[in-house]
Design brief:
Keywords: Cell wall, Cell wall biogenesis/degradation, Membrane, Secreted, Signal. Its main location: secreted. It is built from two helices and 14 strands. The protein is mainly beta.
């Protein structure tokens, strides 16, 4: 059942190309922002488990992929056309002493896009319209910092480094010579700005961003062990050799080195 004061918004949920914790300024995601910045936040309460599947970053089922409820959909000015996917933010409630839970903050990972509603004013139903900095949180996260009746809350946020359990994950999708790779569970800056793949019979091949954190290339890499090179938003390059064995297949997920490890 939806809560009575549930705020309406639209989270982007495309059809993924692959089959398969409370833990920003555009184009400057490579620089961590230590200062607090103003924004607002609303929440959603999932009425069906499928509501958490999909999203504009390509992570799929957020529970199964390890992100849980520590996630956020970001408005246009924060989303940066998907480059921000995977970045981590600390968020706290401010200004409204009636609804804020004092001394609390949450850490969330950017996993989705809150699409603008140009049919509404930015101070009305268009919460995610430019130039608004807006976070859409699962109610489980929202209630860590504010009473749910607060609805559209003033908050402050700052970019922080991500801490993740386990290694970086590579989920291989595609078909034939089309190879797509979802890169997830990234520590450090959390976002990936460049990726390369290498087979045993090739050199390093640059991959293009398909959408979110799904990267792609047209190349026949079947029957070759695969290595990956990633560059994070803060300029750190990490190479993982022979992540996928020679007999890899589409739909499988493999683990490589982790940033900061």
């Amino acid at each position: 059942m939806l809560l009575p004061l549930l705020v309406a918004f639209t989270l982007f949920s495309p059809t993924p190309l692959v089959h398969s914790h409370y833990n920003w300024s555009p184009s400057s995601t490579s620089t961590f922002q230590s200062e607090w910045r103003p924004a607002r936040a609303t929440y959603y309460a999932a009425t069906d488990p499928r509501d958490i599947v999909g999203g504009a970053c390509g992570y799929g089922d957020l529970e199964r992929s390890g992100y849980g409820k520590a996630t956020a959909g970001l408005s246009t000015v924060l989303f940066d056309k998907g480059q921000i996917c995977g970045a981590c933010f600390e968020v706290r409630c401010v200004e409204d002493l009636r609804w804020c839970i004092p001394g609390t903050s949450i850490i969330v990972t950017a996993t989705n896009f809150c699409a603008p509603n140009y049919g509404s004013e930015v101070d009305g139903g268009g919460h995610c319209n430019p130039p608004n900095a807006h976070f859409v949180l699962p109610i489980e996260a929202f209630e860590k910092i504010a009473i749910w009746k607060a609805s559209n809350m003033p908050i402050q946020y700052r970019r922080i480094k991500c801490r993740k359990e386990g290694e970086v994950r590579f989920t291989i999708g595609g078909a034939g010579i089309f190879l797509s790779v979802l890169i997830s569970n990234v520590a450090g800056s959390g976002d990936i700005v460049a990726a390369k793949v290498k087979g045993s019979r090739t050199g390093w091949l640059p991959m293009g961003r398909n959408w979110g954190q799904i990267w792609h290339i047209n190349a026949d890499l079947k029957n070759q062990p695969l290595s990956f090179e990633m560059t994070s938003g803060d300029g750190v390059t990490l190479t993982s050799y022979n992540v996928a064995p020679k007999n890899w297949s589409f739909g499988q997920t493999f683990e490589g080195k982790q940033f900061g490890s």
